Amino acid sequence: MDLLYRAHKVHREAFVDHEIQLSSLMSIKTGGCPEDCAYCPQSAHHEIELENERLIEPDRVLAEAKAAKARGATRFCMGAAWKSPNARDFPRVLEMIRGVKDLGMECCATLGSLNEEQARAMKDAGLSYYNHNLDTSREHYGKIVSTRSYQDRLDTLARVRDAGIKVCCGGILGLGEAEQDRAKLLMELANMPRHPESVPINLLVKVKGTPLEDADDIDPFDFVRAVAMARIMMPKSYVRLSAGRHDMDDALQALCFFAGANSIFFGEKLLTTANAAVDHDLRLLARLGLKPQVSAQEPAKEIESERSILERTGNAVPA
Ligand code: SAM
Ligand code: DTB
Ligand code: SF4
User: Fold this and answer.
1) Of 75, 148, 153, 240, which is the active-site residue?
2) Nearest to residue 83, comparing CAs of 46, 128, 132?
């Protein structure tokens, strides 16, 4: 109760209104991914019933973005099952980014690792956010993914930041991690040179055929605790109640909103799995006295990390 109270207080100081950001998600290249993330239905390492698709046409993506805007989404995120973008497809992704921006939406992409040049090109095309998750603690990461390292993820995130693109970075709960791993993930995020402007907290969607299909359920209140901690540690960031809402009841989602979640994925589908229904979501927000955000609000420009506050004020900085 103390944690919820504190988190809600921090939330109300940073965000005055009761607005929830609606972000729509679309898979622009599905399946056949060379990485072996144990949670992911799109990895080529797992036997999944999933139809792989090459990069889809920009026109189809823009039609979907328009439909998402008409439903009330202010942000459109495009996801690709790549280790990193390839030279043949990348120009078409830039075209999609320009198209989404021209619709007046915030545009986000998640395409795997990036080099400096790719990050710069996406910035020039108008990309607002890049999503690249750390997923879990550094220690637990090796048990979940073997084809890349935690440091690889951090390096891409630094390139995104240096290119002037806002960072969307969070994780997944329910990967068999301990409470300590969740705390460490949040510490990694909150101790970045700047807080990610957007922090997606996913609940594992257990997909048949993935190594984590039978992972133990977590206590739903531990999920709420993680949301509350994210809010307290990163006051001005958008904390997104991301994958996993399909399996959450309304009361649990309400508790997450109270704890400081102020963004959701909105639309029938996530990337390959079902999301909560659009009508249900709009009704839920109305029942809770929450409003869909009408226009993208800029998060505060400079967010000082707890570490920097401690250093500046001459206090002991934890190791
Ligand atoms: N391939 C790119 C990458 O990994 O960065 C972009 C797409 S990937 C699907 C984006 C994120 O989705 C992952 O980092 C992971 O956090 C999340 N994700 C994937 N499968 C999930 C699942 N079954 N449940 C919850 N989150 C999942
Ligand atoms: C994020 O943190 N969650 C989204 C997004 N970033 C791109 C993806 C969730 C994927 C859930 C499983 C699926 O639909 O394939
Ligand atoms: Fe590939 Fe991303 Fe899925 Fe990992 S999470 S298998 S990198 S699509």
Assistant:
1) 240
2) 132
Q: Which residues contact 1 (CB under 8 A, 6 or more apart)?
A: none
**Are the CB atoms for 105 and 294 separated by under 8 Å?**
no
Q: How far apart are CA 307 and CA 222, in angstroms?
A: 25
Per-residue pLDDT reduced to its tens digit, 257-309: 999 999 999 999 999 999 999 999 999 999 999 999 987 554 433 444 556 55
Task: Tell me the whole-structure pTM to 2 decimals.
Answer: 0.91
Q: What is the largest CA-CA distance in the chain?
A: 56
Residues 71/266, Cβ–Cβ less than 8 Å: yes
User: In whole angstroms, what separates CA 216 from the centre of its chain?
Assistant: 22
Q: Kindly give the number of the ligand 2 atom that is closest to the alpha carbon of 275.
A: 14
- Name the residue with the closest Cα to ligand 3, atom 8: 81
CA of 199, nearest ligand number: 2
Q: Give just the sign of the alpha carbon dihedral 115, 118, 121, 126.
A: negative
Q: Give yes or no: 37 in active site.
A: yes
Sort strands 106-110 and 75-80 into parallel, antiparallel or unpaired.
Answer: parallel
- Whether 108 is a known active-site residue: answer yes
**Average pLDDT, rounded, for the chain:** 92
In the DSSP assignment, the letter for residue 54 is: -
- Given a contact cutoff of 8 angstroms between Cβ atoms, the answer to whether 135 and 38 are in contact is no
Half-sphere exposure of 69 (CA within 13 A, CB side): 17
The CA 137 to ligand 2 mean position distance, Å, reads 18
> Rounded to 5, what percent of the chain is helix, strand, coil?
40, 15, 45
- The closest of 120, 128, 218 to 171, measured between CA atoms, is 218
Q: How far apart (Å, rounded) are the C-alpha atoms in residues 122 and 128?
A: 9
